[in-house]
Design brief:
Blueprint lengths: L1 E6 L3 H12 L4 E5 L12 E3 H6 L11 E3 L1 E6 L2 E6 L5 E3 L2 H14 L3 E4 L5 E5 L2 E5 L4 E9 L20 E10 L7 E9 L2 E8 L2 E9 L6 H11 L9 E6 L8 E2 L2 E3 L15 H20 L7 H26 L1 H8 L3 H12 L4 H8 L6 H8 L8
Parallel strand pairs: 1-2, 1-11, 2-8, 5-13, 11-18
Antiparallel strand pairs: 3-7, 4-7, 5-6, 9-10, 10-11, 12-15, 12-16, 13-14, 14-15, 17-18
């Protein structure tokens, strides 16, 4: 009988496993892949995510530091730079493998290449079934990502309007322009394209809200051509949950974290910081529940709300404004380096989304009209 069975070995599952081990829980982590494994992702690790780790990331894994950003929209280009890195470019394959290794060092049991087929709660415990056999635990943590099927045991599945989708490829180059990430607006009403300069290659991708991204492979090829890059058929896609939407995170002894819980920035799509922190909070909640009372597991939702719930809702509010009035906001972002630098402060964790909104909205030419549109309509007397 394990105290905790973790499904998924990505940043959320590994962070939960490391915390569980350090708290003295007997934990088992089940991962369907064998690490290191290929992971489709732009590979930008925000300073906020780096600060969430409870250990130092080896410099070798922080391949490129991002201090600048170039925002492009309909021929406009504006560039901004910060004095300190707001993000680091990492190989997700190496980064995730390192996190899993750190979890193992904390003393938990890890089974790689073992896919979870199903789970059920009976007699005050969780039974988890794999091709190898059945494991029993006092609690189960689902951290299998946005595309997993087990999260439905705790909450409803997302609608297409609550999901994003991104597709990414890697283009070999000899000398990428280090330190500057390119963001291209106008790829779709609800998305953007990016070019990140890794060592020896460019990570190039497009993403946005799922219903607004038909024929996404064709969009990627067009994006490559428009930026003078060779077209390629080697690309991979992944689902991104729309963060900021209230979802059930706990059902009985089952708990969700990371992308499975819907924790991702609805504007940028970044989810690693929230995966790491939610994994840590989930393991802490399990520890309290098993040492005090099992009902304490439900306090995990309140812990996530305190840690980043308000930030994700503010990000969702901004995302909906951006996508409802794309031309106005895209002109704002591509109008002056100060605007880009202010948003980079959000990525770095220096500034909150609410602070950015308070700073940016008055600088919009269409601010007064937007305020009138967003003002609630008073109820009519009958």
């Amino acid at each position: 009988m394990y105290d905790l069975i973790i499904v998924g070995g990505g940043p959320a599952g590994s962070s939960a496993g490391r915390t569980a081990g350090r708290l003295g829980l007997r934990a088992l982590l089940l991962e369907k892949e064998v690490f290191p494994r290929e992971k489709p992702c732009g590979g930008a690790l925000s300073a906020r995510a780096l600060a969430s780790l409870d250990f130092l990331l080896p410099p070798a894994l922080q391949a490129q530091a991002l201090t600048g950003a170039r925002v492009c929209y309909r021929g406009r280009k504006v560039e901004a730079h910060l004095s300190a890195p707001y993000a680091f470019l990492v190989s997700r394959s190496d980064f995730d493998h390192f996190l899993l290794t750190e979890a193992e060092k904390a003393g938990i049991e890890i089974h790689q290449g073992e896919k979870v087929l199903g789970l059920c709660e009976t007699d005050g415990s969780i039974s988890v079934r794999t091709p190898v056999g059945v494991y029993r635990g006092r609690c189960a943590l689902i951290a299998e990502g946005a595309q997993g099927h087990l999260k439905g045991r705790a909450r409803r599945r997302e609608t297409r309007a609550e999901q994003g989708f991104a597709i990414v490829t890697e283009i070999p180059v000899t000398q990428p322009q280090a330190g500057i990430a390119e963001i291209h607006f106008g790829m779709s009403r609800w998305g953007y394209g990016w070019i990140f300069p890794h060592a020896g290659y460019l990570s190039v991708g497009v993403g946005g809200l799922l219903p607004a991204m038909p024929r996404i492979r064709e969009r990627l090829q067009v994006f490559l051509r428009e930026n003078g890059l060779p077209e390629t058929s080697r690309c991979r896609g992944h689902v991104i949950p729309m963060g900021g939407i209230r979802r059930n995170l706990v059902n009985g002894r089952i708990i969700l974290c990371g992308d499975a819980a819907g924790f991702a920035d609805p504007l940028s799509g970044e989810g690693i910081a929230y995966a790491i922190r939610s994994g840590q909070l989930a393991a802490e909640a399990v520890h309290r529940a098993l040492s005090e009372r099992i009902e304490a597991l439900e306090e995990y939702e309140a812990a996530c709300e305190r840690a980043f719930g308000g930030e994700l809702r503010d990000a969702l509010f901004l995302a909906r404004l951006v996508h409802r009035f794309p031309a106005a906001f895209h002109r704002l972002f591509s109008s002056h380096p100060r605007v880009v630098a202010a948003y980079l402060d959000v990525v770095a964790g220096i500034r909150s989304y609410r602070s950015f909104l308070a700073w940016a909205l008055p600088r919009m030419p269409a601010y007064l009209a937007l305020r009138e549109i967003c003002r609630p309509t008073p109820a009519k007397k009958i």
